[in-house]
């Protein structure tokens, strides 16, 4: 009897792990596909040569930000909207970096842990979105201009 209980518990544990892996894999698949599409589109139009990273950025409209270097070796961001809309490029030379954006947030806010830093477009202006958990364990989003580091928007205590 004890062996049956051990077998059933082991089988259910294995089944739970398999289901969790499947859910995580299948849940992330749409993001992976749209990121690959955006990278291919930016490369095919020769806006970017080497890709460092790409991620989905969502505001009023979803887009994919592709960060990398041009054929001239210049660090560039390409904003690829979902759909067939026009792509925008931004040279990151003389712009605020992700590290600088995080440091500005750390100086002014009570940050326990930074969750992510993403570059995106808000009202035709490039901004860094910094998501973090503060000392009270609440979720916060702040948006800083990539041009000059000025605060654009704060969404606090979620």
Automatic annotation (TrEMBL):
<dbReference type="Pfam" id="PF17881">
    <property type="entry name" value="TseB"/>
</dbReference>
<keyword id="KW-0812">Transmembrane</keyword>
<dbReference type="InterPro" id="IPR041401">
    <property type="entry name" value="TseB-like_dom"/>
</dbReference>
<keyword id="KW-1133">Transmembrane helix</keyword>
<feature type="domain" description="Cell wall elongation regulator TseB-like">
    <location>
        <begin position="38"/>
        <end position="81"/>
    </location>
</feature>
<keyword id="KW-0472">Membrane</keyword>
<dbReference type="InterPro" id="IPR046350">
    <property type="entry name" value="Cystatin_sf"/>
</dbReference>
<feature type="transmembrane region" description="Helical">
    <location>
        <begin position="6"/>
        <end position="26"/>
    </location>
</feature>
<protein>
    <recommendedName>
        <fullName>Cell wall elongation regulator TseB-like domain-containing protein</fullName>
    </recommendedName>
</protein>
